[in-house]
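Researcher: Sequence recovery benchmark, item below. Answer with residues only.
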């Protein structure tokens, strides 16, 4: 995410300042800037909010004038694999200033990376294939293909695959009002 460094420097911020504004460590932010670490979707949303930009600008696929984007089967970019273990494909990355942040995610099956995340904006998850387990602080839900869940992104949550085959999930996050 070399774009992160550019956006930070455009604001005249040091890594210390960005760390203060995001609650992330300076060393982690440095790793992200150098491309040695990839943030989760929740962390990327927090970075975008702190910088006052559309989250697509952090992934480097935003275009200035796209108001419509069609993605054909088989043309999706390779999934991004953040430090959280989930991999994801950012859908509609060329549209700037959108009110929804759509992703295809491929949740991990391991327990090691079970990190609860919270972020601004409401969230809709629809399981396209496989089965997942959605964990919240006070409950756990098992979802199969065709099942969905809607919740406030501010509720800490975690998703993991529980089926023998990898799960594919459509994730749509309502963009924070500042970005909408």
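Model:
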């Amino acid at each position: 995410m070399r774009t992160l460094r550019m956006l930070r420097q455009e604001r005249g911020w040091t890594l210390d300042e960005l760390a203060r504004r995001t609650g992330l460590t300076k060393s982690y932010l440095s790793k992200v800037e150098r491309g040695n670490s990839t943030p989760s979707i929740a962390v990327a949303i927090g970075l975008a909010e702190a910088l006052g930009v559309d989250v697509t600008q952090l992934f480097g696929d935003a275009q200035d004038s796209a108001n419509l984007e069609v993605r054909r089967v088989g043309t999706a970019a390779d999934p991004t694999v953040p430090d959280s273990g989930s991999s994801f494909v950012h859908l509609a990355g060329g549209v700037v200033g959108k009110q929804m942040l759509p992703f295809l995610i491929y949740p991990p099956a391991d327990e090691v990376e079970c990190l609860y995340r919270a972020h601004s904006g409401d969230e809709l998850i629809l399981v396209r294939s496989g089965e997942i387990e959605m964990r919240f602080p006070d409950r756990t839900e098992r979802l199969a293909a065709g099942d969905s869940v809607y919740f406030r992104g501010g509720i800490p949550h975690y998703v993991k695959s529980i089926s023998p085959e990898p799960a594919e999930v459509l994730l749509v996050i309502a963009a924070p009002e500042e970005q909408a």
